[in-house]
Specification:
The complex is a heteropentamer of chains A (277), B (471), C (258), D (277) and E (316). Chain A has nine helices and no strands. Chain A is mainly alpha-helical and 277 residues long. Helix content of chain E is 77%, strand content 0%. In chain E, α5 crosses α8. The chains are: A mainly alpha (277), B alpha+beta (471), C alpha/beta (258), D alpha/beta (277), E mainly alpha (316). The complex binds adenosine-5'-triphosphate (2 copies) and magnesium ion (MG) (2 copies).
């Protein structure tokens, strides 16, 4: 029964993501990464064959605008999470080994956790101007402390096990031990965390760009799209509904994928207790 | 029964309420002729009228002004108005330590002398034809030395309304001045509520939480008020001039052909479609249609991308040239920039959009003049003179324009001034230092029973003394 | 007289645990002035009540933990520092078997990888390594096809044998076994004990064998050391210690045993 | 003499796999019965069946008559009043069987609170006596200590105190001395035996320590792969084991037979591979 | 020798000090001069210099930093450039909406999240659990600002149950204030409730699988008794820790929701102050938020420590 549910989460998550990201990527490739054309003469065009969802106040095709936005938002989230995962994991492993360096890392993580991501974003954006880089940095800077904590906790529970002692007896140095024993054994946790982080990162991305702290136009992204369409909530409710639902579908997809992966990857081996779901 | 309070929506919260410290339009909206009064005032048609100065004469070839002050005027804290207040206020505005936004204007005042408490004689360094016009500005308000330094948080003037409270982030409340020297206002209290989000503002209007919203910022949702029995939308004018400012000191904008090409490349009617929902005027020069001196010049640069490409080719600009378009954080600037970028892309230019928030825009673009292109609307009335400034951010310099402007400034004959003003506009239209985009009307949403509210904007102001509820 | 492995005056402290937010912490002495040795082909049984410091001592001897003071020698060479070059050089000669066969094997590695791990430092080529692994698996009576399987596919006894294979693959001289058979049921326990005895006979291995099961200790030890409260309170030939215990702790332990 | 517990054809299934094949035995008041067998043979399952604490998905059939009540079909609310009062159990794992966030005194006191109308003060007094009784007061352990500050043997004694608080008629002890040194083990056994003789308490003792069984049990049950292969009086079993598995067990045990030190133990051919089901 | 509490507090003070340096440095790196921002387009260099002097911007950054910190130590947070009123009063005024918003949202999230998670855990694997989990997963995926927009659309514009935005303070009456904060609170609380519920569920399932649950059952506890007296207190420990980690996320959510609902709270103040280079407001507000988060974290870890005796001795 649990197996069935496992597969359900995984299947539903992947299906949602595929349904969203495949057309998004195709649109992106088809338009070679450019924003859909502005065509003032055809603003608010109704639903038609060439505009499956109609056009927006600038005459852009809503479908391809939102899909390109979905692609861009996802790319930003993926880069940010990759950064956070790589840096956070490395630092988390240092922290797990303890010592002065480990303590320093943990204090830094505490500091990072005390700064809400929006503060980082607001400051970076004012300093740098709105840019994708600033946004990625803000999301990653918030993700790193969390990643450090997760990694440290996970690595810690591996490092006390006797096979780590055995590896030391075998003469492995700490880097080899990490590469051969710690990382493979905490990988499922990291993978699951990465997919839930992706969901969170997408939400942050949408929130930041909604506030105007995200990447600048003309490249569409979901939060800014929502912000600029929100005024039409009465006269053209679809304009607000479509990007909102797209964010939700993507986030839900990553969340479900995370659930599914957790069951798939963690079940056969010892599950570490106390991992957040 | 008739109501005696009113709440007015404004789109931005002022940074303090002291007009001598900040040029923010929001300060004017709240305080101009409500809390503060100057020697003169602008009426709703844009004409100069006496206010604290009952009358005046000019002597010494326009260099000395003799003002007679209103009597029995008291500041809200009870101090009586005397010539000393005029002297204090005007000299303070021009002092070296002054933070007045228009300090250069006040430095032209050589001295203010007080023959008695109700007369003030102002001596200028240089004759200035529009002196009494500029005295109508909010930053020329007459203040009391005892309260001047605290005006930002607790403004005290001589106006018909007393400052009552400021819930920061939400509203400012003004209360009727029971001891007002002039005609007492009918409204007992006026609340200015800060509602930057047009959607929230429209909700509040529909819900009756707001009675009026002058200068409603989103023409695209005015349709929501159409069927409402309580509300109406009134269309007025204001000196709104949206331009695509170009850095004339930088290549390739120092080449007239390039500037012309940009003008040809942009379909300005489409911009009005998107930016003002179709209702606006394509500008040919730096003057809004509501200006008495406005000249309806011929459209020199109708939309013609072919011609634009040719001109660019002539100027040696290769397709794929990269340009940066910076813009401040306002809806019209963002939307217009995005569309302009799309049009320029069609003639082979690649435009990077650079959103800046106000401080950066002011610092980088306006202050240092370091930018390629920027979209901005100038909303000051009658400001063609900025094209003659030395340090103007778009770095326009033209001897012919300068000469014309000198003549214009020196002249005090109304006809000559008009003729010269048209010539100035035409000069700019030929030079196209910036691409003049469009002007748009000013929409006020208000309760049908309100009367007396300013519909046209002559100056950033919302005088409430004459506003009443009709039964 | 030279011993194969010798520990002299080992002392070990830990930072004690404060019991509340407000109370300060005080250090605890776990081992005090512990000296012991083992010779080639000999088994030293280490007994003592729960918490007396047996596991800690085992970890210090194998260089997993550094002692606070004291010295450790392997064939007269000082290998006290757990990170020193001498310790590194002699690592392959001193191996350990852990109590819990489950936790001692990386669940994500095949038996081959697990067993070959100590060989990567030895400079053997892949073929030689493979040969050694197969040899040692045969030694511990595991089938050849075990090499490509994962620990979870084995029973507790088999897992313990995998762990022993790993300890043996470098052809060590001393094996420190910490409660190596305590977690096993009687039949599995017997199989593992037989294996240890076999290997000692064939390769002249030495064991330091930690256990609280006196029957097991009696069965496998030549000499016995008794640890109590972090001190060695008695050592001697197995038969002597078990039949004529001198120290009250030893006596109590033996009397209580059935 | 009527038996305290009479088990008839008791079997346990988890889904389609049989964990315990139908088995029958009886325990009289005051009697100690030992259960032995290799790991995974179903010993703990038997104990948990008698406690009515099998995990979800386990099905039982047969009969287990305890003081005229059939434990197999007893409704939960009736069973609840038996547990802790009439039937008590000490679990296999001392390290994890205590609630980490409550003081040991409170946990012992709970047994009284659940089954008697004693006042707080009486309970406090009783807890104190119990701690004395299991030898914890002597070791400086008080009712206000938390489990994590206790050693394994000490925790086991707390568990025992919880179990015997209400002087149950049947005590089920699952390998409760495995992790202890011989001295502590002996103390605990003595205590349990005293209780048994004082209160006519019956003990179902699960162990693979044949030495212990030989000395303490009146009767022995031998389980193999869920089947009761031998059910005999202790003397009979050790002198004349019937089943080949029992014989194999005895031959290998270091406790039963006096094997000469440093010699191989005889391992029956069918067990030599060490492969477990 | 230092006690644990002292070291926990001093550790956080160090973090706070580092944070203050970072905030100060970042603000000083920002382009755009506060004086230019305030005086606007036509300001003369003289006026700007005058204002610089007035604002105390004409001294070195190090001096300014020292002035700021020593001011703070004397309980003096300076004067807002933009509003020309003491920063302390300004922030205090804004906290009247932000603090209730965060507290109410946290309370609501716990009130919904904990029981939901507990119910799902006790019915794990059953239909109810699956339904609850699916719903939570769904709620967790809604962007809070979008939820806020949708709720305004439904509850204030269509049904007219609640005001569409704004918050006029508590003077207008407690219930008026509460009504104004209702929708923002719900928008903020729902995703948090979903996160809390999912975490509570997995934590409780973990605990229910522990051996000591069996001990309690064998002792005679009923299923319900075990749940309330044994399982839930244990399960709450990691949930409280999670709440500590989620705090910054909650603060971010509050800032966004304030902006959607046009509530004059700290979030709006902060974003505006950044835009106006109102440095005294930004630096003090950021420090206050960071200090608040740290303080709440410390409080939570003390509570956790009080709940969980095993942690005594570890760094708080
Ligand atoms: N890191 C540590 N911090 C605090 N105390 C420790 C630490 N490591 C070990 N101890 C303590 O040191 C003592 C000895 O521990 P050790 O594990 O060596 O005992 P042992 O003799 O192996 O006991 P057992 O038979 O129960 O395995 C114990 O009291 C233990 O609590
Ligand atoms: N939840 C479960 N689902 C399915 N099978 C189970 C479950 N729990 C235990 N088993 C199986 O039931 C059998 C008996 O287990 P049990 O714990 O009773 O053995 P045991 O005799 O107590 O072993 P040990 O000596 O290792 O404690 C084992 O084969 C085990 O794999
Ligand atoms: Mg040990
Ligand atoms: Mg068992």
């Amino acid at each position: 029964m649990t197996r069935l549910r496992t597969n359900r989460s995984l299947i539903a998550g992947s299906a949602l993501l595929l349904a969203c990201l495949v057309p998004a990527t195709l649109t992106w490739i088809w338009r070679s990464g450019r924003s859909p054309l502005i065509d003032i003469a055809h603003r608010y065009a109704p639903i038609s064959f060439s505009h499956p969802l109609g056009t927006d106040p600038f005459g852009r095709d809503i479908a391809s605008y939102v899909l390109t936005g979905a692609f861009n938002s996802t790319v930003i989230a993926v880069i940010a999470v990759t950064l956070a995962t790589v840096i956070g994991t490395a630092l988390g492993l240092v922290a797990a080994y303890g010592g002065v360096r480990g303590k320093a890392v943990m204090s830094t993580a505490d500091l990072g956790l005390a700064f809400p991501p929006i503060l980082i974003a607001a400051m970076l954006v004012t300093a740098q101007g709105a840019s994708a880089t600033g946004e990625i940095l803000a999301i990653a800077l918030f993700g790193i402390p969390a990643q450090i904590r997760i990694t440290r906790q996970a690595a810690h529970s591996i490092l006390v096990l006797d096979y780590i002692a055995a590896a030391r007896m075998a003469g492995l140095n700490s880097i080899d031990t990490i590469l051969r024993h710690v990382l493979p054994n905490i990988a499922p946790i990291l993978i699951v965390h990465a997919s839930t982080s992706l969901a969170l990162a997408l939400l942050s991305e949408a929130g930041l760009s909604y506030l105007g702290l995200g990447a600048p136009p003309p490249q569409p992204d979901l939060g800014r799209t929502l912000a600029s369409y929100q005024i039409h909530i009465f006269d053209h409710p679809l304009l607000v509904a479509i990007p909102g639902v797209t964010v939700m579908v993507l986030v839900l997809g990553f969340n479900l994928l995370g659930d599914g992966l957790r069951d798939l990857l963690e079940r056969p081996f010892n599950r570490l207790k106390g991992q957040p779901s | 029964q008739t109501r005696d309070t009113m709440s007015i929506g404004v789109s931005i919260e002022p940074p303090g309420l002291d007009p001598t410290r900040s040029p923010s339009e929001a300060i004017g909206t709240i305080t101009y002729n409500n809390v503060f009064e100057g020697l003169t005032r602008l009426d709703r048609d844009g004409h100069v009228q006496p206010l604290l100065a009952r009358a005046w004469t000019v002597s010494d070839e326009g260099r000395v002004y003799h003002f007679t002050l209103q009597e029995n005027v008291h500041f809200h804290d009870g101090t009586p108005l005397t010539c000393e207040n005029v002297r204090f206020s005007l000299l303070r505005a021009g002092a070296t330590s002054s933070t007045n936004p228009d300090r250069t204007f006040f430095t032209n005042i050589a001295d203010v002398s007080c023959p008695d408490t109700t007369h003030a004689d102002i001596t200028l360094k240089k004759a200035h034809g529009s002196f009494t016009y500029e005295l109508t500005w909010n930053d020329a308000s007459i203040l009391s030395p005892s309260s001047a330094d605290k005006n930002a948080s607790h403004p005290i003037g001589t106006g018909p309304f007393l400052f009552q409270a400021w819930q920061r982030g939400d509203h400012v409340t003004l209360f009727r001045n029971p001891d007002y020297w002039g005609k007492a206002p009918e409204l007992k209290a006026v609340t200015f509520r800060f509602m930057p989000d047009p959607l929230a503002a429209s909700n509040a209007l529909l819900a009756g939480e707001l009675d009026a919203y002058p200068s409603f910022p989103a023409p695209e949702i005015l349709g929501r008020f159409a069927g409402n029995p309580n509300l109406k939308v009134v269309r007025g004018t204001f000196p709104f001039k949206a331009i695509l400012a170009l850095n004339n000191a930088r290549r390739p904008f120092n080449d007239l052909r390039v500037r012309q090409a940009l003008a040809y490349a942009i379909d300005r009617k489409a911009l009005i479609q998107a930016g003002a929902d179709g209702d606006g005027t394509v500008l040919q020069s730096h003057m809004a249609p509501n200006d008495p001196d406005y000249a309806a010049l011929p459209d020199r640069y109708p939309y013609n991308p072919e011609r634009a490409r040719e001109l660019l080719k002539e100027a040696g600009i290769k397709p794929g040239t990269q340009l940066t378009l910076s813009y401040p954080p306002i809806t019209y600037a963002r939307d217009t920039s995005e569309i302009v970028a799309a049009y320029l892309e069609q003639v082979g230019l690649i435009v990077t959009l650079q959103p800046l928030e106000w401080p950066s825009w002011l610092g980088r673009v306006f202050g240092q003049g370091s930018f390629d292109m920027t979209v901005i609307a100038h909303t000051e009335p009658h400001d063609i003179g900025i094209y003659d400034r030395d340090n103007i951010y778009f770095h326009y310099k033209n001897p012919q324009f300068h000469e014309l402007f000198e003549q214009y400034e020196a002249s005090d004959n109304a006809e000559d001034r008009h003729r010269l003003s048209v010539a100035l506009q035409d000069r700019l239209a030929q030079d196209e230092p910036n691409v003049f985009l469009y002007s748009r009307p000013r929409d006020t949403v208000l309760n049908r029973r309100i009367s007396g509210l300013w519909i046209d904007q002559q100056i950033a102001a919302c005088p409430m003394a004459d506003v009443t509820w009709q039964p | 007289m030279s011993h194969l492995l010798e520990a002299r005056n080992i002392q070990y402290d830990v930072a004690g645990r404060g019991t509340s937010l407000f109370r300060p912490q005080k250090p605890r002495t776990i081992l005090q002035d512990v000296s012991l040795h083992v010779d080639r082909g000999e088994t030293l049984g280490l007994i003592g009540s729960s918490g007396s410091g047996k596991s800690t001592l085992a970890r210090i001897l194998t260089g997993l933990v550094g002692a606070k003071s004291g010295l450790i020698f392997f064939e007269e060479q000082d290998i006290t520092s757990p990170t020193g070059t001498a310790r590194h050089r002699f690592r392959p000669h001193i191996q350990m078997i852990f109590q819990d066969p489950q936790g001692a094997l990386d669940p994500r590695q095949t038996v081959e990888k697990i067993v070959a791990e100590p060989l990567y430092q030895t400079g053997l080529n892949a073929e030689e390594r493979n040969r050694r692994v197969l040899d040692v698996l045969a030694d511990v009576a595991l089938p050849e096809d075990a090499i490509s399987r994962y620990p979870r596919e084995f029973s507790g006894g088999q897992r313990q044998r995998i762990a022993i294979a790993r300890a043996l693959v470098t052809r060590p001289d001393v094996i420190v076994a910490d409660e190596a058979v305590s977690a096993l049921d009687v039949s599995t326990q017997a199989i593992v004990l037989n294996l240890l005895l076999d290997l000692q006979e064939r390769h002249g291995l030495s064991y330091i064998f930690v256990s609280h099961d006196l029957a097991v200790i009696r069965h496998i030890s030549h000499r016995i050391a008794v640890l109590d409260g972090g001190r060695i309170v008695e050592t001697g030939p197995a038969a002597d210690v078990l039949t004529h215990p001198q120290h009250p702790t030893t006596r109590a332990l033996i009397n209580a045993s059935l | 003499m009527t038996s305290l517990l009479s088990v008839q054809n008791l079997s346990v299934h988890a889904g389609s796999t049989a964990i315990l094949h139908p088995l029958s035995f009886t325990i009289n008041a005051g009697e100690t019965v030992a259960v032995t067998g290799e790991s995974g043979s179903g010993k703990s399952t038997l104990a948990r069946t008698l406690m009515g604490l099998l995990p979800d998905g386990f099905e039982t059939s047969g009969q287990a008559l305890f003081e005229d009540q059939n434990l197999i079909s007893l409704p939960e609310h009736q069973f609840r009043s038996l547990r802790g009062q009439k039937i008590a159990m000490v679990f296999q794992e001392p390290m994890t069987a205590l609630n980490p966030i409550r003081r040991i005194g409170q946990q012992i006191g709970d047994t009284f609170r659940l089954h008697t109308a004693m006042t707080g003060r009486e309970i406090k007094e009783a807890v104190h006596q119990l701690l004395d009784r299991v030898g914890l007061s002597r070791a400086g352990i008080s009712a206000s200590d938390y489990p994590h500050t206790l050693s394994g043997g000490q925790r086991q004694r707390v568990l025992l105190a919880i179990a015997i608080a209400c002087k149950p008629a049947l005590l089920i002890a699952d390998e409760f001395t495995t992790a202890l040194d011989s001295q502590t083990q002996a103390e605990i056994m003595d205590l349990v035996q005293d209780l048994a003789s004082e209160n006519q308490m019956a003990i179902l003792m699960i162990s693979h320590d044949l030495g212990l069984i030989r000395h303490k049990a009146r009767h022995v049950l031998v389980l193999q792969h869920g089947t009761l292969v031998e059910n005999a009086k202790t003397e009979t079993l050790f002198s004349a084991p019937q089943h080949p598995y029992t014989r194999a067990l005895l031959s290998m045990s270091l406790h039963g037979v006096n094997h000469p030190p440093l010699t191989r133990l005889p391992v029956p051919e069918n067990l030599a591979s060490g492969v477990e089901p | 020798m230092m006690t644990n509490l002292a070291s926990a507090i001093s550790g956080r003070l160090v973090v706070l000090t580092v944070a203050s340096v970072i905030v100060f440095a970042l603000l000083n790196l920002l382009p755009g001069d506060p004086a230019t921002v305030m005086l606007g387009l036509d300001a003369s260099p003289d006026s700007i210099a005058a204002l610089h002097h007035q604002l105390g911007l004409d001294v070195s950054p190090a001096t300014r930093y020292v002035r700021w910190i020593s001011g703070l130590l004397h309980g003096e947070a300076g004067t807002s450039y933009a509003y020309d009123v003491p920063v302390r009063g300004l922030i205090f005024e804004r906290f009247q909406s932000t603090l209730p918003l965060i507290l109410l949202a946290t309370g609501l999230a716990l009130l919904i999240g904990l029981p939901t998670g507990a119910i799902a855990a006790t019915h794990r694997g059953k239909g109810l659990d699956l339904a609850v989990m699916a719903t939570l997963q769904f709620l967790k995926s809604i962007p809070d600002f979008w939820l806020a927009m949708m709720m305004t659309l439904l509850f204030s514009l269509t049904l007219h149950w609640f005001p569409a935005g704004g918050f006029t303070g508590w003077n207008a009456g407690f219930f008026t204030g509460l009504r104004a904060l209702f929708l923002p609170t719900v928008a903020l609380a729902i995703p948090q409730a979903a996160i809390t519920a999912r975490f509570m569920r997995s934590s409780l399932i973990d605990v229910l699988n522990q051996d000591f649950i069996r001990t309690a059952r064998a002792q005679g506890y009923s299923g319900k008794g075990v749940l309330w007296k044994v399982a839930i207190p244990n399960a709450l420990i990691p949930v409280l820790t999670l709440i500590g980690i989620q705090l910054p996320v909650l603060v971010t959510g509050a800032i966004i929701v304030e902006s959607v609902f046009n509530i004059p709270g700290c979030g709006k103040l902060l974003l505006e102050a950044v835009n106006q280079r109102d440095i005294p407001v930004v630096q003090n507000l950021v420090m206050l938020i960071v200090a608040g988060v740290l303080l709440l974290n410390l409080a939570l870890s003390i509570v956790v420590r009080w709940l969980d005796p095993r942690l005594a001795g570890e760094r708080a």
